[in-house]
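Hey,

Quick one before I head out. I ran the complex with beta-D-glucopyranose overnight. Inputs first:
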Amino acid sequence: MARYRIGRILTSCCLLSIVILAASCHRTSSAPAKPLSSFDAQVRQWVAKMTLDEKVGQMTQAELSGLKEMSDIETYFIGSILSGGSSDPKEGNSLEAWTNTYDNCQKHALKTRLKIPLLYGIDGVHGHNNVIGAVVFPHNVGLGCTRNPELIKEISRITALEIRATGINWTFAPCITVPQDERWGRTYEGFSEDPILVSELGQAAVEGLQGTDLSNPVTVLACAKHYVGDGGTAYGSAQKPNSKSLLDQGDTRIDEATLRRIHLYPYPASIAAGVGSIMPSYNSWNGSKCSGNKYLLTDVLKTELGFDGFLISDYNAIDQITKDYKTAIMISINAGMDMGMVPNSYREYIKCLKELVQEGKIPMSRIDDAVTRILRVKAAMGLLDKNASVLADRTLHQDFGSLKHRQVARQAVRESLVLLKNQGKTLPLSKTAARIHIAGKNADDIGNQCGGWTIDWQGKSGAITTGGTTILAAIRKTVSANTQITFSKDGIGANGATLGIVVIGETPYAEMEGDRSDLALDVEDVQAVAEMKKAGIPVVVVLLSGRPMIINSVLEQADAFVAAWLPGTEGQGVADVLFGDYKPTGKLSYTWPRSMDQIPINVGDKNYDPLFPYGFGLTY
Ligand code: BGC
Ligand code: BGC
């Protein structure tokens, strides 16, 4: 707790947050991660013997698919590689291929003079979600509704284990954004609209991913993102030509007190938990790009909050600071960026960065500070030790996607469901009903159930290669042998059934593609529910979505209504709640609006009159 200066924060927050902050710091005291700066003596010796080329290389992150030659890793002394959302190994997307790719990259790094191993980063944001066979957990929007930090810690521990099974040692998670407007396509990446809940669950995620000792071979380096204000952009402020973005990467137009009270709020708890890296955001704050903002990166984050890990830029985010690339690099590094995520442009970035130092436009002291911060983390991970084991530990393959891991995901699904309506005690359903008709486009679609950042960057509908159990398959396993299950996407044919279940909602999207001006349900969803009602049977509606949607007419028709978010591969957790094996406990972590013109709407607003308030959730 002493690792950030609480006093400074307190003076700049309102009285309410003082109480809140005190409450959320309570858990912090139980996480005694060794301060990164305790590795400084060791790190100083490394920095002292490094050439400028070697230093600049450490400050560079290229993308696997962007590498012109694999040998560029040693030629340019590259310190880090990433695989972005769709950057799979050439050999395919299997556990084996990923592990080989990781090892291969490290072998190149070990050919350099100093043999400093790579940090290999990936977006393991709901499990090791890029890899075939990994367990895929619910997205953060669902986890927020569990209100269960211990569970989030356990999920993160398992995620770390599955990531390490491929050797990979860094995940760009947790996302501790505080989304204020659900038209934003990244809403599901945030635990809640409420900074206090985000702070608590973000801290739990860091603790689970990193453990208390980063040199433990089953932990990964975490990355809190996106700093700061990513969830507060003004609607329509993302002026990117040829882009669907309405809010994504836009401008957060709020005063500093509000920025601190909402968006900065979760960072101190993650820092106190020892998070080793933080990702500055694409968005701007009152017109100034975060990725080039010295006040935010250096004065607030590093000096005031005492963050002693390193900053990794977002994907090509440096390019957005200003038109001239070299100037953009100068602004960003001088503002406090320590490592550039420069997927394809790494050669150009390295050239410019070196020139800027030689021309005196970036002081050597800044370079040394950046390298020190990066090497502190590598030292804490044991990567600078003489006999560091750098290659993947393949004995971890045995637990990859295991039943044990899936059971935790199933529990997370159960706890994330929010029961919004249960008229006439429709739920729990009987497992011995004569016939149940299932409908809806999301009932038997593992891709839709997992959402974005699953196998592919944007996700995909249909039988994506991830495996897992769809909700339809799960219901089949749950009911008695005498119960007949019939299925039609459009709901036609429900006549004569005892009851109906319709699974509707969104189809996958991620950043840039997921912004929407209208959150109405698809016409086919509304029709499927209407079709089922025509059969005169009780109808349970299950909504799969990355955010609250405008559901009024369907809600009226439904006898029971469950918000199931983006549950991931373990559809069995949904069936467990529908059929009474597990009572619903989830509570909304976002306010549920009545209509589009209420948005943005958040708990604490004046004249707050939502369809369902923050914290709502029935049980039976
Ligand atoms: C996203 C980040 C992600 C990074 C690497 C960016 O476009 O904003 O959340 O970590 O790509 O894939
Ligand atoms: C990558 C993502 C990245 C995005 C940003 C995609 O091609 O796969 O990881 O976030 O580009 O533009």
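Residues 2-27+38-388 form a domain with the TIM Barrel fold (CATH 3.20.20.300).

Talk tomorrow,
K.
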